[in-house]
């Protein structure tokens, strides 16, 4: 669980850095120092990082088979308590 939290923090940092890179590349394009190809490339990497971020988040909230704490009538394993 601790490893997933660390991975979540790292992927958030990566996403933030790619977002900054896209903004900087768009600014450079406005000054004529870049090309649309580079902006699209940076945006593609940003989208990949966001998809990875979503996958890590999904792993964090995925039910664990050894957890069986009842939560409102449903076990964390996804089975309904009768």
From TrEMBL:
It comes from the Bacteria. This is Uncharacterized protein. It comes from Zobellia galactanivorans (strain DSM 12802 / CCUG 47099 / CIP 106680 / NCIMB 13871 / Dsij). The lineage of its organism: Bacteria, Pseudomonadati, Bacteroidota, Flavobacteriia, Flavobacteriales.
């Amino acid at each position: 669980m601790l490893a997933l939290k660390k991975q979540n923090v790292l992927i958030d940092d990566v996403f933030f850095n790619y977002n900054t890179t896209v903004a900087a590349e768009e600014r450079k394009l406005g000054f004529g120092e870049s090309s649309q190809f580079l902006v699209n490339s940076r945006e593609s990497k940003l989208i990949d990082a966001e998809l990875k971020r979503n996958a890590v988040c999904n792993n964090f909230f995925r039910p664990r088979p050894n957890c069986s704490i009842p939560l409102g009538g449903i076990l964390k394993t996804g089975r309904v308590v009768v």
